[in-house]
Design brief:
This protein is mostly beta strands. It is 5% helix and 43% strand. The radius of gyration is 16 Å and the shape is globular.
Length: 145
């Protein structure tokens, strides 16, 4: 069964710009913990996915007056095809990925545009996609007699 998995990126723009890195200023959460996702609310989120799943990435700055946008998500297109979408009648964007084949344990890169100077920072590929089949939560397994 395929599903839509939402990933929310929350970024402390001021801290990221002061440190000149995203580590420690980026918090990633998805809605697939029952499906096996791990490391919630860290910059090393491991999102459990299966072929056919759709992933939606959105970004929220902690300080709403600071500019923040996702500029790139780096994944091999033969494994997960990623595209930028825009909400109708706005310039607010989000990113959508379609998982095409099993991912194993696949790190991916995020490039964010932060602040008034449109500076980009890359998180160093701490986030990753993992195979859902190998990481199902214990509550979803059946007990054998």
């Amino acid at each position: 069964m395929t599903k839509t998995i939402n990933i929310l990126l929350v970024v402390d723009v001021v801290a990221a710009l002061e440190a000149d890195k995203l580590a420690g200023s980026l918090y990633m959460i998805d809605d697939n913990r029952p499906g096996g996702s791990r490391n919630q609310a860290t910059d090393g989120l491991a999102t459990a996915v299966a072929p056919g799943d759709e992933i939606i990435w959105t970004l929220l700055p902690i300080e709403c007056e600071n500019h923040a946008a996702i500029r790139a998500i780096k994944l091999p297109p033969e494994i997960c095809e990623v595209r930028r979408e825009t909400y109708p009648e706005s310039d607010v964007s989000y990113w959508v990925g379609t998982v095409k084949q099993p991912v194993g344990d696949l790190p991916y890169g995020l490039t964010l545009e932060l602040g008034s100077r449109m500076r980009t920072l890359d998180n160093g590929a701490a986030a990753r996609l993992i195979d859902a089949a190998l990481n199902a939560s214990p509550g979803t397994r059946t007990r054998s007699s």
